[in-house]
Amino acid sequence: MDDRTVTTPQQLADDPGLSDWRHLAGTLQARFRTGSFARGAALVAAVAEVADELDHHPDVDLRYSHVTVVTRSHDVGALTRRDVALAVRVSALAADAGHPACPHEPAVLEIGLDAVDLPAVRAFWQAVLGYDDVDGALVDPAGRLSPLWFQQMDPPRTERGRFHLDLTVPPEMVEKRISAALAAGGRLVTDAFAPSWWVLADPEGNEVCLCTWQARDERGAHDPALRG
Predict the structure, then answer these.
(1) Which of 29, 50, 102, 119 could in theory staple to 106 by disulfide, Cβ–Cβ 3.0 to 4.6 A?
(2) What pTM value is reported for the model?
(3) C-alpha angle with apex 162: 158 to 167, nearest 5 degrees?
(4) pLDDT value of position 217
(5) Which helix (H) or strand (E) holds 69?
(6) What are the pLDDT digits (tens) for 120-167?
């Protein structure tokens, strides 16, 4: 099989070799608890050797107590068999070193902004943030800060905010997050587009979409009309 063959989110979820990993916003992510900076650095070094061997290099975030690995085949613009092969090898390295996976912890935060004059609004935010324009969305060139994307809006509104957060989490975490948000005083705006996303609002109406990879092929991306 060509190692550039694209894998679907469902194939990734069904793969027993990827139990440490979660599909989040077009990436495959895993976090391993290392317990110390030195042990984490050793794991990063081992990952780097495997990445060079496979000629496929992930993004790696080293913290005092854990290491997060994020992979995606950027030349294809999707997840491929290369990402699966790398993920399996990284999991083996972590297991051999005694670093447990924390599959429920990784998440991806994006910011959406509804606007009437998209080019003008996008130009302002690109200038003030110093981001790159990637297919109409603004992306931190260092890959550290949350991306900002835009939705076309009809005439301006005043009854609700234009900014909202998109938080992509593992599917098994959604109900727990919703319950916690409701218990904290929030409200469910709509679950009409579940399991792709649920829209929640805080007591003052500021919104967040809790997103998963599920049913994305059928539902597609966010649409302001769908958000109500």
Answers:
(1) 29
(2) 0.88
(3) 145
(4) 53
(5) strand 66-71
(6) 999 999 999 999 999 999 999 998 999 999 988 887 766 667 888 999
